[in-house]
């Protein structure tokens, strides 16, 4: 088959790589270079443990205070509020313990095979050096503080996540540069990370191209069809490329295309910010999650990346880089000796749905169109497993993961 892949982020690129392993011809549609949108600014975590949704029990009580703080962990631009508030209400409806357990169970099913699914793709692309399996440390100011997040951590354990408590002495031995600020931790030894998310996507994309893929730097406007089959992809310029199938993996821009295929989903952009400290003098061996501060810290090839905020403001509003500077201030508080003389900052659009589950499945009104988007801040974690499952769908094979929780028509 000749399959069009709309999007060259981690999900679209992994999907293309898996399709090529089945012998399909691939054409990418994306006006951007691969790995230059949301995938570029990813925090880099590859975490089988990252199965908890954004909406957690008790969040409803905290949201009002968050919304009043323009630099807080979750904020809404007031101009966008009328559009996003109904979406936030839906998210909070999914934050009960019963719903969180259901969602976490589904997310875990896509996260368990992270390294099994990345492995063959990285080997094909000769890019295994971009992924490491060094584990993740969830760190706290005290064991008593950690108890506030015990329900979620215990849920992870009940779903098979390996986690063990780390007392202060061992924590300081594992990460000497954390000394003084954190006195208790939980180690997830199965976790890993990438040293460069953009380079990883580019390496996979380059291998796809070497295997015969084509990348048309065009924005897709719509589709040509005969009955329930897509016969062509139409660009904004009016050109039409004949295809045998299409995968929509355009991240936060996927909603209108999915709607044309009969699948209307409540897709939002969870705008994320990061600061990368290029001059970092910290020598971290693990990815570190400062849970009380909602701050992910990951040592990368280009420096120390700090990420961890959510802003709802739509696709068109300009970045508010004060949020990135707030991350940097927090980093200085947690690591007073951190050299921050050279930094870069970024904002990107994470595609998210109110139940924190991505959309993975066939489009409602097309037999040869599949949807793969809405992974939120976990696209890097679930990109390869999503790609493998979409390849199964295209081939008509049984999937290795139960995709029922991710079906496009669940809304």
From TrEMBL:
It holds the Pfam family DAO. It comes from the Bacteria. PANTHER family: GLYCINE OXIDASE, SARCOSINE DEHYDROGENASE-RELATED. InterPro entries: FAD-dep_OxRdtase (IPR006076), FAD/NAD-bd_sf (IPR036188). This is Dehydrogenase. Transmembrane segments: none annotated. It comes from Pseudorhodoferax aquiterrae. Residues 2-393 form the FAD dependent oxidoreductase domain. Keywords: Oxidoreductase. The lineage of its organism: Bacteria, Pseudomonadati, Pseudomonadota, Betaproteobacteria, Burkholderiales.
């Amino acid at each position: 088959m000749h399959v069009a892949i709309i999007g060259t982020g981690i999900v679209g690129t992994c999907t293309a790589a898996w399709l090529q392993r089945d012998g399909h011809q691939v054409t990418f549609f994306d006006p951007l270079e691969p790995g230059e949108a949301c995938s570029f600014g990813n925090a880099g975590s590859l975490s089988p443990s990252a199965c908890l949704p954004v909406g957690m029990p008790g969040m409803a009580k905290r949201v009002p205070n968050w919304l009043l703080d323009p630099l807080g962990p979750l904020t809404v631009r007031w101009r966008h509020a009328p559009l996003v508030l109904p979406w936030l209400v839906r998210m909070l409806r999914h934050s009960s313990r019963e719903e969180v357990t259901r969602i976490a169970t589904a997310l875990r099913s896509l996260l368990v095979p992270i390294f099994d699914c990345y492995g063959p793709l990285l080997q094909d692309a000769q890019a295994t050096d971009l992924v490491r399996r060094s584990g993740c440390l969830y760190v706290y100011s005290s064991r008593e503080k950690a108890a506030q997040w015990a329900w979620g951590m215990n849920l992870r354990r009940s779903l098979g996540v390996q986690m063990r408590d780390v007392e202060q002495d061992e924590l300081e031995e594992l990460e000497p540069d954390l000394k003084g600020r954190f006195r208790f931790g939980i180690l997830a030894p199965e976790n890993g990370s990438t040293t460069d998310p953009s380079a990883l996507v580019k390496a996979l994309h380059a291998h796809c191209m070497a295997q015969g893929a084509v990348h048309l730097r065009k924005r897709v406007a719509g589709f040509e069809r005969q009955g329930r089959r897509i016969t062509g992809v139409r660009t904004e310029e009016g050109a039409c490329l004949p295809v045998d199938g299409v995968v929509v993996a355009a991240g936060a821009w996927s909603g209108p295309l999915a709607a044309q295929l009969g699948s209307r989903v409540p897709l939002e952009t969870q705008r994320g910010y990061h600061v990368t400290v290029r001059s970092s003098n910290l020598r971290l061996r693990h990815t570190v999650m400062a849970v009380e501060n909602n701050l992910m810290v990951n040592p990368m090839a280009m420096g120390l990346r700090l990420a961890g905020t959510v802003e709802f403001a739509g696709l068109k509003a300009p970045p508010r880089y004060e949020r990135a500077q707030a991350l940097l201030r927090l980093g200085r508080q947690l690591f007073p000796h951190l050299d921050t003389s050279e930094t870069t900052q970024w904002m990107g659009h994470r595609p998210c749905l109110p139940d924190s589950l991505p959309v993975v499945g066939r489009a409602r009104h097309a037999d040869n169109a599949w949807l793969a988007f809405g992974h939120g801040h976990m696209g890097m974690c679930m990109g390869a497993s999503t790609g493998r499952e979409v390849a199964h769908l295209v081939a008509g094979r049984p999937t290795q993961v139960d995709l029922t929780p991710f079906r496009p028509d669940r809304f």
